[in-house]
């Protein structure tokens, strides 16, 4: 099974160094949505432009899940 990395970015990326195995891109993207939902529950983070970025094993970005809307 392929390994996917889930970086958190708000200007400076926080790198996922281990990753997780998923059957396919769609399963990895679904996982990024659940990570974003957990961040949304932390009100202390609500003023930040956070993203969960999914990278495949080749290091290519396959999805970017926005946690909060961009500040105006």
Tell how many strands the DSSP assignment holds: 5
For the largest beta-sheet, the strand count, sense and barrel status come to: 5 strands, antiparallel
Strand content: 25-35%
Distance between the termini: 41 Å
**Count of discrete structural domains:** 1
**Shape category:** globular
What is the overall number of helices?
1
Radius of gyration equals 12 Å
Question: How would you sum up this structure, described in words?
Answer:
The protein is of the alpha+beta class and 72 residues long. The chain has one domain (3-66). The chain contains one helix and five strands, in the order βββαββ. Strands 1, 2, 3, 4 and 5 form a five-stranded antiparallel beta sheet that branches. Strand 4 and strand 5 form a beta hairpin. The N and C termini lie far apart (41 Å).
Keywords, please?
single chain; five-stranded antiparallel sheet; 72 residues; alpha+beta
Summarize, please.
It is globular, with a radius of gyration of 12 Å. The chain has one domain. By secondary structure, the protein is an alpha+beta fold.
